[in-house]
């Protein structure tokens, strides 16, 4: 998955006083476009040394990453959606995580309690209101993805009714207040397909900066009737797929893609067993 960047490690400790130096990467975004140099590479500090404002983001090994408005420089751009394919992968993940923080910073300029401008907190990654002392932390929305299998060993695959993603996906949804992530699985599956599931098995999690989410992946088994009653407001397709089908999923950068790949290769059987 996109966050699998070994031997690099995401070091997200907050260092508000750290200054950029030569070679450090500088990110900025506009309308979900990644701002780059005209040759498509990311800006480095020496390219925009005259900029006065930088926000330290995180580091990976000896690589340090900052946020700064570089739109006044000659630049190009590409869709942030292409970050899932970016090479080297650790830079793609760095840019995606920077996008997550960029949205949070730009969507929280003013205090929602008193209306004054937020300031960067000096101790932790937070926005602090100096007037009413309100503190806002980065938005991280918990969500789940579930690979549902039936007794025939088929997988429930879907396609979304809305949005620009048209490839195969799995049932997914955000957690609501007052529920566990396991309860989210049960509710979302029933709402979108009318199915009931059992035998839940946690697989993996994934930070997903595109939607400011933390995704939790599960495998599950249909409990009872396998007839799909699709919510057409959420889905335009929901069907049972057989192993070895050609299911285009945009690769294994995403948790969804990796889980579908496990089904297609049969490797999910290494850790998940269907109940009789």
UniProtKB/TrEMBL annotation:
Entry superkingdom: Bacteria
Pfam families xrefs: NUDIX, Zn_ribbon_NUD
Known EC number: 3.6.1.22
Catalyzed reactions per annotation: a 5'-end NAD(+)-phospho-ribonucleoside in mRNA + H2O = a 5'-end phospho-adenosine-phospho-ribonucleoside in mRNA + beta-nicotinamide D-ribonucleotide + 2 H(+)
Family under the similarity heading: Belongs to the Nudix hydrolase family. NudC subfamily.
UniProt key word Hydrolase: yes
Record SUPFAM superfamilies: Nudix
Name of the protein described by the UniProt record: NAD(+) diphosphatase
UniProt cofactor(s): Mg(2+); Zn(2+)
Protein species of origin: Bulleidia extructa W1219
One BP annotation, GO: NADP+ catabolic process
Keywords assigned by UniProt, alphabetized: Hydrolase, Magnesium, Metal-binding, NAD
Segments forming domain Nudix hydrolase: 139-265
Alphabetized NCBIfam families for the sequence: PRK00241.1 (NF001299)
Principal EC category: hydrolase
Record InterPro entries: NAD-cap_RNA_hydrolase_NudC (IPR050241), NudC-like_C (IPR049734), NUDIX_hydrolase-like_dom_sf (IPR015797), NUDIX_hydrolase_CS (IPR020084), NUDIX_hydrolase_dom (IPR000086), Znr_NADH_PPase (IPR015376)
């Amino acid at each position: 998955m996109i966050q699998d960047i070994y031997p690099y490690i995401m070091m997200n400790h907050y260092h508000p006083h750290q200054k950029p130096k030569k070679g450090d990467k500088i990110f900025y975004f506009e309308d979900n476009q990644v701002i780059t140099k005209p040759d498509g590479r990311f800006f480095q500090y020496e390219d925009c040394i005259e900029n006065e404002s930088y926000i330290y983001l995180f580091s990976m090994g000896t690589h340090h990453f900052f946020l700064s408005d570089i739109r006044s420089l000659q630049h190009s751009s590409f869709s942030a959606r292409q970050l899932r394919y970016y090479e080297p992968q650790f830079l793609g993940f760095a840019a995606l995580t920077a996008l997550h923080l960029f949205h949070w910073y730009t969507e929280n300029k003013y205090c929602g309690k008193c209306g004054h401008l937020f300031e960067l907190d000096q101790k932790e990654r937070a926005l602090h209101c100096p007037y009413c002392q309100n503190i806002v932390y980065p938005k991280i929305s918990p969500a789940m993805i579930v690979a549902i299998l039936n007794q025939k060993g088929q997988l429930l695959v879907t396609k979304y009714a809305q949005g620009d993603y048209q490839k195969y996906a799995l049932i997914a949804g955000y957690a609501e207040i007052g529920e566990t992530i396991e309860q989210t699985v049960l509710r979302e599956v029933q709402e979108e397909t009318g199915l009931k599931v059992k035998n839940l098995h946690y697989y993996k999690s994934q930070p997903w900066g595109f939607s400011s989410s933390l995704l939790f992946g599960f495998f599950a088994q249909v409990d009872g009737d396998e007839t799909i009653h699709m919510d057409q407001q959420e889905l335009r397709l929901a069907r049972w797929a057989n192993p070895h089908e050609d299911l285009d999923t945009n690769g294994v950068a995403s948790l969804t893609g990796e889980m579908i790949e496990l089904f297609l290769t049969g490797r999910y059987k290494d850790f998940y067993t269907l109940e009789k």
